[in-house]
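Recall the central idea of this unit: under ordinary conditions, the amino acid sequence of a chain determines the structure it adopts. In this exercise we apply that idea directly, starting from the sequence alone.
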Amino acid sequence: MKNILIKQACIINKNSKHHQQIVDVLITSGSIAKINKNISEFPSDSIIIAGTDLHASVGWMDIRSNLNDPGNEHKEDLHSGAAAAQKGGFTAIACMGTTNPALHSKSQIEYIVNKSKSLPVKIYPIGTVTNKAEGIDLAELYDMSMSGAIAFSDNKNPIANPELLQRAMQYANAFNKKLIQIPFDKKIANDGKVNEGIVSTSLGLKGIPAIAEELMLQRDLMLAAHHQIPIHIGGVSTAASVEIIRQAKQKGIKVTCDVHAINLLLTDEVLDGFDTNYKILPPLRTQRDVDALIAGLKDGSIDVICTDHTPQDNESKVTEFDSAAFGMTGLETFFPVILKALNGALSITEIIEKIAINPRIIFDLQLPQLEENQSANLTIFSPSEKWTYETSKGASKSHNTPFNGVAFTGKAIATVYYE
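Accordingly, the structure predicted from this sequence is:
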């Protein structure tokens, strides 16, 4: 294990006595050995992390990354996904189960757990709710839970059958696991490509109406309320969805939700160049929706910001817009995208709650402690460092991002992760 000395970092941990203090942090044998204003005595072989405007928080966690392993490792695999996550500042990520084959049984979950043991990032598998994520028969939920699955989701193939969904919710709740439902009614979306509105009409692209999200969201929340079972809603993207969730929380419905970082930054107006990198699901919406999402983060209606990291190969993206695959990489540009999108609307402490604290609380995972004599699980970052993202220097196997060559402010400097 490496000895590490972090010099003059502002601690972001509101439950700690060191919160917002500028201190040195010494890590030895995988644990936080000392936190002090100035540490002058440390092992001679220590790696020193120093810089301008350094901050340190508990390690960030992404609750939705598509790592394509097994089945499509040419786009991403566990090793490259973990490397991309580490560069982006994460010490933990949850990988979605809609792989090939799907993570729908004990053996598939064990494959992820065993293959990821030596990686620099903790990888938590999310099993599918149904066999092959086809929405017909329930998968081996209990066996997957016992093998390490932290939640269940059919990802962008949300369960259309309400009877099946409520049965899955009741079953998973019996052993304290949540379902993640991404509200997207495919029949109403009707093979749409972008947000339905002025932009889709002007570009001649088939639109995905906001109601395709909002109707399924209403249904899912009504089921959760009826059975008094917690549910997590993924990828909220419309103003009405935020208000629906806000009212549901006020009524005492046990709902948590997340938003994709990119949906906080961009609107459908960027689509005028038909750049397929902007083709994502849920689609980029309007400025009114973006403003509502940010307001939802501020008032606590939205609990988590995640990446929805969805790597695609060139063949899937360098094609006509209609036939291009949905998705954008997001792990390595996550933090600066958030800072640019929020533009001070949330404090750094509030951002850390959305990307490090709440993800673990929601899925009942152990919360790292940035205190002496605790295992070192932290992210070191600078909110003010300027840098330019280049896909050629990135860790992900795929380059489906509109941010190649873009100058950013805010960067993850390093991670330290020991269990």
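The radius of gyration is 21 Å.
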